Amino acid sequence: MALSDLLILGRDSDLGSERGVSCTGALPEASDPQLIERAKSARAKLGSRALILGHHYQRDEVIAFADITGDSFKLAQAAANNPDSEFVIFCGVHFMAESADILTAPHQKVILPDLAAGCSMADMATANQVAECWNALEKIGVASKTIPVTYMNSSAAIKSFTGENGGTICTSSNAMKAMSWAFEQGEKILFLPDQHLGRNTAVLSLGLSLEDCVLWNPWKPMGGLTKEEILAAKVFLWRGHCSVHGRFSLDNVNTVRKMIPGVNVLVHPECQHEVVSNADVVGSTEMIIRTIDGASPGSAWAIGTELNLVQRLAKAHPDKTIAFLDKTVCYCSTMNRIDLPHLVWAMESLVASHIVNQITVEPEIARYSKMALERMLAL
Ligand code: 13P
Ligand code: SF4
């Protein structure tokens, strides 16, 4: 393979932005030459009434209008700590906006500019499936010793289950703290819904063995496990994963090491265990940014996370070699649903006192979810 087969970003290459959404109906046309001016004007009119939060995987055109950018943990903190803005426009995905609604004050309204911005991983654990799993653990007599630890990437209903059953939420930046806390409260952990973050944290950060962790398959009776396996397990890993991070492979790591001598492999903990075990640095999106910001000029990095972020890092650091860990392009299609036309539409609607795409979590679900989220913020 030639060096040109790797996706080296920055300086001479720019993949441009891919538009997956056609803007119809009330949305401005993406080709509207006035779009940026319209965005600036609506933003100015909203002033301090609106706070725009932008996850690091958002497109550049959206990040340009974010008041605060961050990983899921930082954005949850931002939502909890800014009670003065009437509107929180969340440029991210649905579960993040739900968490923001739970953490903001009652007078604040959380807006998700495109309701189709979901997360395929969050959809891999439904409330019914989790209730069935818990019933099975109760029948075998281990539920009372099991603490649920639920990744932020989950529906409010699953967060509520977690709060009600004495568990906590975690993000990729505090999963180790959350799991350590859970082992102080009980003997076993039910980790939902990302098997990779759960396994990587249990094995690589807490020193458990791979055998201590068993996979709970929600499509099989008793998770596809025997009673003996359930009794012996320390961590039940829900069978969910991220389709974006699941693409990175050990082969990618080995190839990049051959192609770029001295390269540092930097990955998100949602990657598969064999990728994370063979990486040099592992961390949340915020940590990935901090690592590249602090890296020496001339150093080389192959990054395994969503492509909008990797491209932005490459542009911001022309003094470093920054490659995308996979050979092929890999955006998070749901994060990419939020584009400038949707943001302009949401802001102009709010300026016209028309509230669109408000995310509200039912009070009963919000009550226990908040408990679980606040346990996380206090960790
Ligand atoms: P971070 O919390 O690291 O930003 O990750 C969120 C996410 O969805 C990664 O796929
Ligand atoms: Fe969900 Fe993966 Fe997209 Fe993150 S990158 S929002 S986990 S689908």
Automatic annotation (TrEMBL):
Keywords, sorted A to Z: 4Fe-4S, Cytoplasm, Iron, Iron-sulfur, Metal-binding, Pyridine nucleotide biosynthesis, Transferase
SUPFAM superfamilies: NadA-like (SSF142754)
Cofactor: [4Fe-4S] cluster
UniProt-listed Enzyme Commission number(s): 2.5.1.72
Transmembrane segments annotated in the record for this chain: none
PANTHER family listed in its UniProt record: QUINOLINATE SYNTHASE, CHLOROPLASTIC (PTHR30573:SF0), QUINOLINATE SYNTHETASE A (PTHR30573)
Protein name in the entry: quinolinate synthase
Species in which this protein is naturally found: freshwater metagenome
